[in-house]
Amino acid sequence: MPVPHRLTSLLALLVLPLTALAASLGDAHSAFVRAHADSPIRWQAWGEEAFAAARAQDKPLYVLVGTLTHELARAMREQSFTREETAAIVNESFIPVVVDRDEHPALAAFLQVYLDQAKQMQGWPLNVWLTPELQPFDGATYLPPTDEWGKEGFPNAVRRIAAAWQADPGAQRTRASDTLDTLAPFDGQTTLEVSDVRAAVAEGLDAWIGMSDPENGGFGDPPRRLEPELLRFLLKHDEPTTRIAAVRTFRNAAGSPMRDPLDGGFFRSTGDAAWQAPTLQKTLADQARAALAYQAAGMDDVAQRALDYALSLASPDFGYAAAEDSTTPGVATAFLWTTDQIGTALGGSADTALLERLGVKPEGNLPADGFMDVDPKGKNLPRWTTLPVDQDTDALDRLRIARAKRAQPVRDQPATSGAHGLFLAALARSTEARHTAAASKLAAFVLEKLIRPDGTLRSGPAFDTEASPRDYALVADGLLHHAAATGELDSRRVALALLQTLDTRFLDPDTGRYAAAALPLPPGVALRLPPPAPDAGDLPSVESTTLLTSVTHDLGEPAKRAALAATIVGDIRNSPIHARGDQLLALHAWLATLP
Fold this sequence. Notes:
Elements: H1 5-15, H2 18-26, H3 31-34, E1 44-45, H4 48-57, E2 61-66, H5 71-80, H6 84-93, E3 95-100, H7 105-119, E4 126-130, E5 136-140, H8 154-167, H9 169-182, H10 194-210, H11 228-234, H12 240-254, E6 281-283, H13 284-296, H14 300-311, E7 323-325, H15 329-332, H16 339-345, H17 352-357, H18 393-404, E8 410-411, H19 417-429, H20 433-450, E9 458-460, E10 463-466, H21 469-486, H22 489-506, E11 507-508, E12 513-514, H23 542-552, H24 558-574, H25 581-591
Parallel strand pairs: 1-3, 2-3
Antiparallel strand pairs: 2-4, 4-5, 6-7, 7-8, 9-10, 11-12
């Protein structure tokens, strides 16, 4: 059957320029952008070249925003974008643009707010269609390769939006303009009563304790995360039930596959209540947050091992990598062992006592549905069943060497400035000499590589875009922790300057809220809006971090602290879920300073 002329021409448009565009994306600073270089969709980087093409051809921009290690972003890259017929429609109808969330934090925040408020959608990646004037008029989060479970698939979304634009571009422009008018700008200043703050903290505490798992530790239904800031908050209370919930979580998570026994690093989350099916990703930020929590709990050995793993993420000239991803089936199996493989790695056989301490069984210890595309029979994910395990140091070293010969994780690009700031804080609070030395080296890197000549903060070592307000707060906090530990005056001076720049460039004086983007607004950001609320497992918010920093480092600022507390309480009131751990930790710290 002959191919229709229209499709033939579309495929020609698809194939001919692909080499040049792939070469351009292949040179991008972002690993996420580079990963799309060989796609049948003719992706472009975010910038004036794409904007000019959209204006000249009067085509919408189709903007994909994500990160390299996000599972659903990878699923779209490997599944939704691979069908040539759909790719041809995208290439003819739109100017497709791929954006790294960490490289363009202001744009990512604005489009996240747009999807949240205009379409009640949350999550990553973001798929947003913009008019040639860079105003959003349609979008979605994850779009599967086909319609499924009532969710629109990528091909149908592409066809629907392309047809709507071709039928009436003016209507889509009006839709975009009308939608922007409805986006909620900054809320008014919240009236603060200390009693309201105490009530918000008490209600949040009750909500989390009500979700506490009395057997496994952790909170709520799986998937579960460690919730480090929440655990630090719970440790501040003397009530037995509160401390028991925290300690139970600390011990069960540390003695489970959630923590890699070969390198001490914590995985991102677990798919089950008993912490037995971890998502095989480790991030720099999660190690820092876990270390800070375990330091607070007095479990220094666990904290030190997490920091040691994070030190292994060092990247020459670029600080530290953001993450290691081992979720693909070929790499995931590198973490799984039969008893025979463990015996071979140890140079003979493993004794029964060692296998018991590692939770390893001849029949396997994996949950039946814990790992996709992996037959669980006879497979084990080692774990620490007793703490500490100093008697097993030699065995663990041998297993680590054997695993290094297997398929290795995919390493992401350098982490954001905020993640570097968190790691600096955790290193500075460690009592180990190797961590103190690493903290000084990292502080010097921050001062030299992350602070721009004009005193503003880069979004990360790989990028020269301006950081998010949260990054400013986290880097300042890290530098202040380093200064407190060492007496280093430059770190404190730069930290205070960053906090001042944060307020000057991002703080809205009328409402006391931080904006997602500083003035002048970057291309594609149409309104000055507050940053979206952090996702589950995301880094602490700018308000929580700034308030906790002010209290921890005794910066004074009573009026500013009260304003931040009011904003946090207002966010809690307006949230459909209970207060986050970082909010409760910051509010509790502020309340403790009051007479």
